[in-house]
Amino acid sequence: MNRIAIALALLVFASASNAGTDYQCVNDCTGKGYMYQYCQSRCSYDDNPSRQRPIQPQNPFQMPQIPQTDYKCVSDCTSKGYLYQYCQQRCSY
Fold it and tell me: How much is the pTM?
């Protein structure tokens, strides 16, 4: 029984380590009346973008698109108190 509990705890911590959470975003979200779990999921971001898989071209003769970031969006986002990594992910396309 203890092994199952430990395995579940490790699974939870392992999945949580893949994402960062912007708690200013969570506070703003919950302040608007949304549920904490929803806000946490909306305010989470990949804290290690190097783990993302590379974009594969659909057509072998077409170059893959490089993700772009709107830095005005990032600046506006961080000026509201949100974390840079969260803003960068939200402002990239």
Answer: 0.48
